[in-house]
């Protein structure tokens, strides 16, 4: 079967595997992380047709024909995506295991709602967990990013 | 350099998802490892038959207790834990066997075919039940299940209690919890003859090296431990975990590497936070001073001692609190039960002990009619005071920490009373006093090459705290080179020098000082080599921006090497402390310096639902000298947010030894919606300018500050963590229907 990932077509083996497994194991896109395996932590968040999805909860075959965006697809011409830059500028990570998931959730949020309030950001990002506790700076990064995106 | 808020050196990799965590490691011919775990909390193993499992296509080898030699046991101080279980299991989830296979599917199929027969034994799960006569014994060497009893004896307790006007006795409890780093424990091992390489997500590479060399009877140098950046540690990766098992498994695969990556459920049976019951008996006088304190701590260590022989004595020191108390006795017990082993959890042991002593501070203040803030201020240690161990306190700033926290909260919210139906508002405070590691050593090595580049070899683990960026900044300042000229390598025990551990917030201080020493040697060497070139005596030279500078001339580091026909210069530095307490009296010196932090909370309690909202939180830690202000503040903030977990939601619930919520759906950790509406924090510096770590200081005060604020708001006292809505409602009901 064919998956459209980050603007390229990839032929991958059929089988009942999760999108997360296929991205990491077959395509080597290891930016997407498994944190909990049950869709609670958001570390494996990817965008499917612009919507944030837990890669651990969806089978690869369910996203055939859709556009999948992972953290590897955010940079354009060697330039960081403004959200990535905002995460650096606001020091919005520590161990950064959760960071790709947060950045993609933020991208989806700003697509849906280019000018979110702080409450809307908290609501939208409540499915992404950061154990180091960088939330306050993540909030600032999202507010900074929305001015640039 | 020092004092500049540079971003983490590898920020780019962190936001692009390219940082090489253990989980990404792929080696040629690598096999997948899978652990087969006990389903019984306590049983004799009658049979572990792997015959059928070995027939599964793709299964390469299976490790069981039958493979193990007599030395295949480990633990910090008490070597009671087998690489896998040999003839007995002592907790649900204990490894019984391990499978190395070409695929996870094959390993999982084989797991189902391993035939395990148990002969069930009586089990005990509660620490205080485990020390009663007639309780089942876990390890014959410790018939009453007490594997560690740490004692502190300071002053005459009976006399001191007799001098008290009031005596308070309260018990505070904390449940088992999980460190829950988003990256699980991951280790890979490969043998080449009698040489072992292990890649592992560990906070203590040299501890891993020593343990593996002992288990396999090979020289420490024959074990190479490589640690990539960690996806969080928080103490959970601070001691030996799955490394012995991975290495023993790889011994059976003919040189093929095997990688084990734990599932989230496995994390919950691999290491936990000690459940604790802490009783404080405290004597006070009407003038607001203390006479005596007696502390009794029961730590539930789980089925194996693990790091507890070190942590139980640390918990003793950390249980007394930051107040002047003339007579103090402490008994700290480490106890075996049939639960998974317990280890450090961010702010090790202080998370439990601060909950106890800071909660009791408010109980005392309220009963005596004193203001909780003033009562604390009046009694807090200042430099020059003596602690209960007899050691003199220097550079302590508890008063400043508490003042800053209280000030950060701002004027009381207006109006003080919320509109009807919106609940009640209250304020509370907490202060923490924690020791770091008494005896430890850090070494650093610097290499300068003739292109002017500097490589720092360090075994400090980068786990998100910014340890490597901190060391680069210290190098830049101490050596006089731009940050861009510095590269960091490590930990890799084959090429980076010794370090005891990356834990207990010790690295900035210990490794930082080792780096400063190495930079001092390097500068001295550079001065010697450049003095003839600059026609200036060495003692009149200085370094700046990669140059040795004389009055009117200068020369770059690279040119100094070239002009001396040198390709590179190597210099090393070391910093160590060797302190400790008398095992019978707890007297001596417990720490090179003290961890100091405080917090102030303003909460809103909904009396209909019991829901607690943190309206404002203000935290302060003592940092001595801050290396990177924004990263330090992020550590401060992160500790507060992390601390909301054990305060309000975290508890592993066991049923007959079986964890019932070993996943992030049923075990909640704080999300972005749980953080305080307003959160501020600061790091306090001192004139002495000694660099301290600040990785834990603002965490332990969170739970008591919130509990104290809740009592301020609604007049009920919660003594059992976590502070859930159910407990608040129950307490409110009991208060209204006495």
What does this 3D model show about the protein?
The complex is a heterodimer of chains A (149) and B (738). Chain A is of the alpha+beta class. Chain A has two domains: 2-73, Beta-grasp domain (Ubiquitin-like (UB roll)), CATH 3.10.20.30; 82-148, DNA polymerase, domain 1 (Orthogonal Bundle), CATH 1.10.150. Chain A is built from five helices and five strands, in the order ββαβββαααα. In chain A, strand 3 (45-48) and strand 4 (51-54) form a beta hairpin. In chain A, helix 2 (82-89) crosses helix 5. The termini of chain A are far apart. The model of chain A has no long low-confidence stretch (mean pLDDT 96). Chain B is of the alpha+beta class. Chain B has three domains: 11-121 and 179-267, Aldehyde Oxidoreductase, domain 3 (Alpha-Beta Complex); 272-380 and 392-437 and 583-736, Aldehyde oxidase/xanthine dehydrogenase, molybdopterin binding domain (Aldehyde Oxidoreductase, domain 4, 2-Layer Sandwich), CATH 3.30.365.10; 439-578, Aldehyde oxidase/xanthine dehydrogenase, molybdopterin binding domain (Aldehyde Oxidoreductase, domain 4), CATH 3.30.365.10. Helix content of chain B is 26%, strand content 28%. A seven-stranded mixed beta sheet of chain B has the order 3-7-1-14-11-12-13, sandwiched between helices. Chain B has a five-stranded mixed beta sheet with strand order 9-18-17-16-10. A four-stranded mixed beta sheet of chain B has the order 20-30-31-34, sandwiched between helices. In chain B, strand 17 (290-302), helix 8 (308-317) and strand 18 (327-336) form a beta-alpha-beta unit. The termini of chain B are far apart. The mean pLDDT of chain B is 97. The chains are: A alpha+beta (149), B alpha+beta (738). At the A-B interface, helix 2, helix 3, helix 4 and helix 5 of A face helix 1 and helix 15 of B.
């Amino acid at each position: 079967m064919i998956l459209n990932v980050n603007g390229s077509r990839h032929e991958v083996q059929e089988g009942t595997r999760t999108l997360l497994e296929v991205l990491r194991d077959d395509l080597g896109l290891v930016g997407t992380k498994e944190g909990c395996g049950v869709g609670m932590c958001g570390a494996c968040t990817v965008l499917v047709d612009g919507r944030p999805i837990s890669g651990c909860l969806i089978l690869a075959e369910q996203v055939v024909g859709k556009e999948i965006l992972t953290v590897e697809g955010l940079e354009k011409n060697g330039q960081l995506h403004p959200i990535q830059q905002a995460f650096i500028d606001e020091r919005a990570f520590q161990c950064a295991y959760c960071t790709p998931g947060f950045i993609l959730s933020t991208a989806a949020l700003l697509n849906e709602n280019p000018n979110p309030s702080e409450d809307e950001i908290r609501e939208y990002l409540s499915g992404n967990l950061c154990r180091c506790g960088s939330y306050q700076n993540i909030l600032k990064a999202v507010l900074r990013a929305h001015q640039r995106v | 350099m020092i004092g500049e808020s540079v971003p983490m050196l590898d920020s780019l990799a962190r936001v692009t998802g390219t940082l090489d965590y253990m989980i990404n490691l792929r080696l040629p011919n690598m096999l997948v490892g899978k652990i087969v775990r006990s389903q019984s909390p306590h049983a004799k193993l009658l049979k572990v038959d792997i015959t059928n499992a070995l027939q599964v296509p793709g299964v390469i080898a299976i490790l069981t207790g039958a493979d193990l030699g007599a030395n295949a046991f480990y633990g910090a101080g008490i070597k009671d834990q087998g690489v896998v279980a040999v003839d007995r299991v002592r907790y649900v989830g204990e490894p019984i066997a391990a499978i190395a296979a070409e695929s996870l599917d094959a390993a999982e199929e084989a797991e189902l075919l391993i035939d395990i027969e148990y002969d069930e034994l009586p089990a005990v799960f509660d620490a205080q039940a485990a020390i009663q006569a007639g309780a089942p014994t876990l390890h014959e060497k410790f018939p009453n299940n007490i594997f560690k009893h740490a004692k502190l004896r300071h002053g005459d307790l009976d006399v001191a209690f007799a001098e008290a006007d009031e005596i308070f006795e309260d018990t505070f409890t904390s449940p088992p919890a999980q460190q829950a780093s988003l990256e699980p424990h991951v280790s890979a091992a490969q043998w080449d003859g009698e040489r072992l390489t292990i890649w592992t997500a560990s906070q203590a590479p040299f501890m891993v090296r020593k343990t593996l060399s002992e288990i396999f009877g090979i020289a420490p140098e024959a074990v190479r431990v490589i640690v990539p950046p960690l996806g969080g540690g928080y103490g959970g990766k601070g001691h030996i975990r799955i490394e012995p098992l991975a290495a023993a498994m790889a011994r059976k695969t003919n040189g093929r590497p095997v990688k084990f990556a734990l599932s989230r459920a496995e994390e919950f049976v691999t290491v936990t936070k000690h459940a604790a019951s802490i009783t404080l008996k405290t004597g006070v006088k009407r003038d607001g001073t203390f006479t005596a304190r007696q502390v009794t701590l029961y730590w539930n260590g789980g089925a194996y001692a693990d790091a507890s022989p070190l942590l139980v004595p640390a918990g003793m020191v950390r249980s007394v609190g930051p107040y002047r108390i003339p007579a103090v006795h402490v008994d700290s017990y480490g106890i075996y039960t049939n639960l998974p082993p317990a280890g450090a959890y961010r702010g090790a042991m202080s998370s439990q002990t601060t909950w106890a002593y800071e909660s009791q501070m408010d109980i005392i203040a309220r009963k005596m009619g004193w203001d909780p803030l003033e009562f604390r201020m009046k009694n807090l240690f200042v430099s020059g005071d003596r602690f209960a161990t007899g050691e003199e306190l220097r550079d302590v700033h508890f008063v400043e920490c508490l003042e800053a926290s209280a000030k950060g909260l701002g004027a009381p919210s207006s109006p003080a009373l919320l509109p009807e139906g919106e609940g009640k508002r209250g304020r509370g405070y907490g202060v923490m006093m924690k020791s770091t590691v008494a005896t430890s050593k850090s070494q650093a090595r610097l290499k300068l090459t003739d292109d002017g580049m500097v490589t720092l070899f360090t075994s400090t683990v980068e786990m998100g705290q910014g340890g490597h960026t901190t060391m680069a900044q210290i190098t830049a300042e101490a050596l006089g080179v731009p940050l861009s000229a510095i590269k960091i390598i490590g930990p890799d025990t084959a090429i980076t020098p010794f370090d005891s551990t990356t834990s207990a917030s010790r690295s900035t201080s210990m490794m930082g000082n080792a780096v400063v020493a190495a930079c001092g040697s390097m500068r001295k060497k550079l001065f010697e080599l450049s003095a003839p070139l600059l026609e200036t005596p060495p003692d009149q030279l200085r370094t700046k921006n990669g140059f040795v500078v004389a009055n009117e001339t200068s020369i770059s580091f690279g040119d100094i090497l070239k002009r001396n026909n040198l390709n590179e210069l190597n210099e090393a530095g070391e910093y160590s402390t060797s302190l400790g307490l008398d095992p019978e009296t707890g007297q001596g010196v417990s720490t090179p310096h003290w961890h100091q932090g405080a917090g102030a909370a303003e909460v809103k309690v909904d009396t209909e639902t019991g829901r607690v909202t943190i309206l404002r939180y203000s935290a302060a830690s003592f940092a001595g000298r801050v290396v990177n202000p924004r990263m330090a503040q992020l550590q401060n903030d992160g500790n507060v947010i992390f601390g909301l977990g054990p305060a309000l939601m975290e508890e592993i619930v066991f049923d007959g030894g079986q964890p019932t919520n070993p996943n992030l759906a049923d075990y909640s950790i704080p999300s972005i919606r749980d953080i305080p509406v307003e959160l501020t924090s600061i790091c306090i510096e001192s004139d002495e300018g000694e660099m301290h770590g600040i990785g834990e200081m603002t965490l332990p005060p969170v739970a008591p500050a919130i509990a104290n604020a809740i009592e301020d708001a609604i007049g009920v006292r919660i003594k059992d963590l976590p502070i859930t809505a159910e407990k608040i409602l129950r307490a409110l009901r009991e208060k209204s229907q006495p």
